Amino acid sequence: MSSYLLSIPVICALLSSVISLGAKQSARVARIGSFLLLGIGGIVAAYTGFYVLIEHQILTQDIMLGLPWMHWHLRLDMLSALFFIIIGVVSCAASVFGIGYTREFESTAYGFMPLGFFTGLFVAGMLGVLIADDALIFMIGWEIMSLASYFLVTFQHTQAANRSAGFLYLLMAHLGGLAILLAFGILAGMGSGEFNFDFSFNDMRDHSNITPLWANIAVGLSLFGFGMKAGLVPAHAWLPEAHPVAPSHISALMSGVMLKVAIYGFMRVTFDLVSTLSLHWSWGVVLISIGGASALLGILYALMQNDLKRLLAYSSIENVGIIFISLGLCLLFHSQNRPALASLAMIAALYHILNHSIFKSLLFLSAGAVLHNTHERNLEQMGGLIRRVPYTAFFFLIGSLSIAALPPFNGFVSEWLTFQAALQTTGLQSGVLRTLIPFSAALLALTSALSATCFVKLYGTAFLGQPRSKNVRHAHEIDNGMRVAQGFLALLCLLLGIFPTTVISVLEAIPHKLIGVELANVSAEGWLWLTPISPGVASYSAPLVLLSIVTVWGLGYLLLHDPKKSRISPAWDCGFGGGTPRTQYTAAAFAMPIRRIFKPVWKVKEKIEEQKEITLHSKRIDYKLEISDRSWTALYLPIAAAVNYCARTLGYIQTGNIRTYLSYSFFTLLFLLWLIT
Amino acid sequence: MELSLFANWFLAGLQTLLLIALAPLLLGWIRACKAMLHNHSPASLWQPYRDLRKFFRKEVVVADGASWLFRATPYIVLGTMILSAGVVPLVATDLPTAAIADVIVLTSFFALARFFSALAAMDTGTAFGGMGASREMMLSALAEPAMLMAVFTLSMTANTTNLSSTIEYLLQHGLVLRPSFIFAALGLMMVAIAETGRIPIDNPSTHLELTMVHEAMILEYSGRHLGLIEWAHQIKLMVYGVLIANLFIPWGIATTLTPEALGIGVLAIIGKLMILGVVLAIYETTLAKLRLFRAPDYLSFAFLLSLLGMLSHVILEVG
């Protein structure tokens, strides 16, 4: 019975997309119905995932569909179950949020129909990728996911920027898809010796004949394909273009979940389909370097953004980088025959995957709430929202604390686990590795400190201080559904942060399956103490941390608080008076010291134009700051130019004359006939 | 068994109280040393306590338009600092509170306090607050990796990130001259000076807008709020002092919980902190404050020292 659980969420998502086709008849019914079904699908998906992960019961199903010799193989094991839970939880929150959020689209020219239709397809595609047990279903799910999300990115298609972002996104998705297809081709073709037309993952796992060279090529292709989708540096530039322009609950799904599906694909190929033992150890170093570069550049670019949603998108690149650092550590320890540490690093990666999907979705939903209210994405126009939208501000604060890796929230736990894995280098043979691994930990420390800076900037300019524009000054609190969705995710951030031992005891099943080793000592001292390696080496007790901070706060408040002894008065203005919203520190000014220190990272154009009066006093000063991504000029534009050049060159054979084309066909046919005989 | 467990928690609580109670005294001692080096007659050692008492008695003036975050921050900052005080082994190792958090968690406690102070600074919407917040976050972004690198060097030697276990490991292995430790100690000291807002990075005794960092952040605070923040800041200075004293010169700390050992532990830590205070006073007297944009050089030097420490550990001490 339970194997039907696999397809129920997919069917729910598909139904939700079908229902929204009726938006022409009754937009309200279609909207509520489609989000309701999406939410139900999410709950079932989360339940199924928990069932598999806790009961250690792998669900499989063969559906007699498709070609006669190629049935659809469906399977949900521990690895995909975690991602199933993530999709379930986030799409649940996104649907609760979406009911209120998409109301305003009903009356616009865009309408609800395309939005609801492609949202359902998008979620169904992601679920399809996870339950796939053969390359065919995997690729079908993958393509549905990519195409549906293309239509979501270009949903507000009257803006040219959205269309070009969508095109870039489609292009990159297909380049990546091609590499993934090739990787599966290698695994299917080289694995079993002869090329059979059953692309099932089971056959690929049975890689008795695959040579290490082909295995390494397959992993390289999958790193390229999945890495491109996950937004790894240097191929990341499409991500901050595409993710922010979609409606906010879709941005949450894209950044929070779709990136994770790409990571899932990479993990499936690397840790499951290819035996990790046949991989060269240097893959670990490659992953750590790419992950480290993504983490550092991602957060440095995020720091320079003044567009709320673009900033969040860049910070997703950072977090994907952190996940890849952990995965790299895992491969490295595995190749050095330290399975216990490898599984610790894998748990750190999985924990961060889980955390990032929760807090990034929360942040995107809150950003959506702000956008919904103020129609403003520019930080420089915001300010003081904490008084206008107190709930959203509170939830955003929790999201910011989590993403800045501060205790006792969830982002800290996964980062701490990564640190612990990175410090256990004593047994390694190579001195280079012994240096490189702690160095990657220092890089991680820099990244997390910068991300704290980034989110202080974001929160400080958007939610604190005084409002800088009229829209923001008149913002109003959002409806209950949107609040509940944010509150749910914020609560998860806290719970995942203070009960790490419980979470890890559930996650443990995954490395147990893929690497074969469990962490023996995680809760050696009871659930209160997280001791990943052993109690003597490192311990952290999140519940006690929370308890102590709250106790001291409560005591201090009780002892010291005295409302009679406090007074409200204007802030200190140096005696000059006239402190206006314009005299506040701006977001660009806040990030200026960082811009000065890490100068070569960005391409910065700064222009100051000053008009002076006769008295030499400035009449008017214009300040323009343009910061662009270096990967555009270094990678994207040259490749685009090269493609254009090739197309022009090939254009010579395109005469426009039908006789020439006929002769081309004739000679091609001759050549093919010669080839066959 | 139950009783001894209770006694251990009680001792740990006592140790925490001792640390937070002594923190203003350390500041008074440093100020006195500095005054003597400047040929002034020093203020009383108890002056910081008097200041705190004054702050707690005065009324709070909250800036117009400040949100709940502004009012909550002093309590959160003090709470976090008291928690850090509980985690650091002051007099004795092997107390149960030390297991709540290891050294990585300790740095993130500081980060948590800083996050809230910076937000509170931006809450009032004045230029000073934003300026202070921006500078403080920039400095800490550079200081944190240097600090962790220094600490990692130690924890790789001792194969633990728990402060208590590290100290015990060092005590067991006696006085061995490790080049990595010297680098790490220098790096950590430089970071500690930057993080506690001392010269040459920040000047705690000035309110000049061009130079102030920490003071700019807390400019809007007054009364008990200011008192809480000042006290938290003194605790932070003390925690850094204890970290350096007990990690690099661990001798004297009590490893058993007998009255004699504890007594020696108290005397030892007071002696070590007094010496550190003198060193800090001399350091601050001989150096001038750096320009803000020279501070990254200072901090990258600290990072380099810590990195050298780790490299020399990998190359000289393991291989």
Structure classification of chain B? mainly alpha
Largest Cβ-defined interface: A-B, 86 and 84 residues
Radius of gyration of chain B: 20 Å
Q: Calculate the mean pLDDT score of chain A and round it.
A: 88
The tally of beta strands of chain B, per DSSP, is 1
- Shape call of chain B: globular
- Profile the largest sheet of chain B: none
**Average pLDDT value of chain B?**
89
Strand content of chain A: 5-15%
**How many E strands of chain A?**
5
Quaternary status of these chains? Answer: heterodimer
In percent, how helical is the residue content of chain A?
A: 55-70%
SSE pattern of chain B: HHEHHHHHHHHH
N-to-C terminal Cα separation of chain A, in Å? Answer: 54 Å
Provide the structure class of chain A. Answer: mainly alpha
Describe this structure in words.
The complex is a heterodimer of chains A (677) and B (319). Chain A has 677 residues and is mainly alpha-helical. Chain A has a domain at 631-676. Chain A has helices at residues 7-19, 27-55, 78-101, 103-106, 113-131, 135-153, 160-191, 201-205, 212-230, 239-245, 248-273, 282-304, 308-335, 339-374, 385-388, 390-403, 410-423, 431-462, 470-473, 480-498, 500-507, 509-514, 542-560, 587-597, 630-650, 658-676, and strands at 59-63, 72-76, 566-569, 603-612, 618-628. The N and C termini of chain A lie far apart (54 Å). The relative contact order of chain B is 0.16. Chain B has one domain. Chain B is globular and about 55 Å long. Chain B starts with a helix and ends with a helix. In chain B, helix 2 packs antiparallel against helix 9. Chain B has 319 residues and is mainly α. The chains are: A mainly alpha (677), B mainly alpha (319).
